[in-house]
Amino acid sequence: MKTSRIKKSGLNANGTNPSRVSIKELFSLSFLKDFKWYEWAIIACMTIAQLIASILTETNAGIAIFNYTISLAGFLYVVCASRCSFWIFIFGLYQPIGYGIVCLTSGVYGEMIVNFAYFVPMQIIGIALWIKNYIMQKKSYTSNSTTVSVKNLKPKQYLIIVPIVVVCYVAVYFLLTLLDGQRLPYLDAFISVLCILGTLLLTLRYVENWYVYLIVNTASAVLWGISMFQNDISAPFMFILYITYTLYSVIGLIQWRKSAKADKQTKTTNIKTETLYESKENESDNSVSTKDLVETDVNLPSNTNSENQQNIDANLLDSTQKSQDNS
Q: What is the pTM of this model?
């Protein structure tokens, strides 16, 4: 059976070795070709808005360009995240480093610490976990998937997550109140803790990360909106960025929910297909065993009758000889 040979050889449905993954395969630029018209429109509007903000606030050109690159990297990050593209980790390295610098200069230390100490290393961990899942997807000999799979949280996982988030929020809030120059510690702590949760869920490929980021992005837009009235030169750029994030979080949530449903159906199909292949292989093995058993059963009586006949002939010969001796 062809499918059985593919399975035993470790090849996928395309007949290729799924354990071999190239950089070109993972970081294809196809995501740019798949850009929708509204995504190009968002980039255009974000560019114009940040240009106007830099003119109105008389921001230094170098700072304005730096803030714009952070905004663009952040937008591309959420676009790639919504499509489960590995480019998420490239933009995910630059964006938290740049954003962490902005938070440092703006006195938002909670988010600065989270970006430098958590988001940056999580990109390394995330790409390792995604590649592992990607290889597992390719090993499925009934799947031609070119991306990672996504899933949903179970009800019992919520019972674990919610208390941990509450405890972490209280702890981070009190730590931030101890720092001089810290602004809006209650909001900063809320955003920082949920950012950690959202990134963890994204790394583990849970759909619920988009619900978390929808809350985070809305709260961040409020944070930078307040900062605009405190003469923060970076606030207008960050406010526009998080308004964009908030809108695109809805798009990402819709796309991941569709992907989770499709992945669940694919998984069910794969399980049924594997069960069918195994049952066919077992039937083939059983038919061979039955044939051998029948051949053995047929031969046994023949051998037994031959041996009995030889014994009878030997007894008759002995009896004849004894009769002759007596006579």
A: 0.68
